[in-house]
Inverse folding.
């Protein structure tokens, strides 16, 4: 089993719909992150959480929300999806020393 | 504020040739430096990291990188590439900022290895 599991792997949704992307990890890490990848822009941080009671906005949090249900689970929601949220979304984890991230395989989201 | 610049968006190279992927960063604090690789339809995988100590860092798959503090660079090198090295490579920097400990990624460099 993968250390960081994202579901779904692919999703097509309509404009205005609410959608949730889920992430679970078996690394035992406290820190979890959601990134968005767009061609030519690299990875941009949406939200991050350093423990279950800690939620922080990243550089592009508008239009997104998150929930840290447990140490191992961190979900990302798009309350009302719009086409420019079409992207590849990655969940990642790290330990407290931030010696590198472990990434999930990604969710490819298309908003039509 | 931290920033990362990957100087080449695409690098084509022939199989068995050497390659260098360039990365420059800016930061006013001590940093950790990373290279990640992303194969098609996969997530990012940590290739190597510099935390402290020796400036030459060896990673997986025969890659290495050299931390140059005076030039604020962390270029990735491999002496002889294989077709299977075709992927996108991301440089990243982590450091303490006023907003906390942050990691910034570069825009990525696509490495194409040709037969």
């Amino acid at each position: 089993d993968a250390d960081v599991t994202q579901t779904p792997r692919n999703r097509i949704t309509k404009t205005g719909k609410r959608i949730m992307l889920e992430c679970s990890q078996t690394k035992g890490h406290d820190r979890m992150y959601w990134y968005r990848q767009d061609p030519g822009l690299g990875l941009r941080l949406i939200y991050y959480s350093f423990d279950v009671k800690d939620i922080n906005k990243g550089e592009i949090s508008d239009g997104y929300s998150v929930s840290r249900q447990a140490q191992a689970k961190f979900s990302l929601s798009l309350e009302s999806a719009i086409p420019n949220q079409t992207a590849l979304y990655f969940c990642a984890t790290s330990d407290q020393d931030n010696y590198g991230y472990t990434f999930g395989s990604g969710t490819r989201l298309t908003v039509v | 504020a931290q920033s990362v610049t990957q100087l080449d968006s695409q690098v084509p190279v022939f199989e068995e040739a050497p390659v260098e992927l360039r990365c420059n960063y800016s930061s006013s604090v001590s940093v950790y430096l990373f290279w990640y690789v992303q194969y098609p339809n996969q997530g990012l995988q940590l290739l190597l990291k510099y935390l402290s100590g020796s400036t030459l860092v060896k990673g997986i798959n025969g890659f290495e990188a050299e931390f140059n503090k005076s030039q604020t660079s962390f270029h990735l090198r491999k002496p002889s590439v294989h077709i299977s090295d075709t992927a996108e490579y991301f440089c990243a920097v982590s450091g303490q900022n006023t907003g906390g400990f942050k990691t910034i990624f570069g825009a990525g460099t696509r490495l194409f290895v040709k037969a």
About this structure: The mean pLDDT of chain A is 93. Chain A touches chain B through 20 residues (CB under 8 Å).
